[in-house]
Amino acid sequence: MAKKESLVFNGYRIPGGKGGAAVIRACQLIRAEPGIKQADLIYSVTQWAGLNRSTAGWITSPGDKSPAEILWDRRKEGLGFKCYPNEHTPDLDPRTFLRDVVSKEFDKAWAETGRVLPGELVNVTRWGGGHDVGMLLGFNIHRSRMAAEHTITSRAEIDNLELYDKGIFGLHPCVLVPSGRMTAVMGWLSRASA
What architecture does CATH give domain 8-92? Predict the structure, then answer.
């Protein structure tokens, strides 16, 4: 498989993964809200991209790996810094970057299960112990630790950019087990033997 070509703006190479998605989201927010407070920017992009805020300061604090003062300008105003677009602030859709991250993670996990599809019987091995055989109903979308927001039933649905409007999410298999209840699987899943 060919390596994905890097995006470079004003000499700054956009990183891969969630970090790259966060940088492009920062550019989008700065273009939409010139003068956004740096603290508000870092809070928003780390939440959206699913990054740990305590280790993501590189996004807004100038340094060797930072896009700050390269892809946008920072100005000391009042007690803090505010961020403004410059001629190098890219106008890209950050959702496509996040979609790449989620798709890659899902495809890897899905391959490990034998690419089971909704309607197929699956073996479920729970982290806390115990086994079940059930029918895969789909994959629940979870953001943070909230209840399932939506269930997708095909791989193609992951490519819908609207899923990424609110940011990062996890996908957990939803299985109907013999007791008649649906459960989000927190453990291992594999195709059941015929």
Answer: Orthogonal Bundle (1.10)
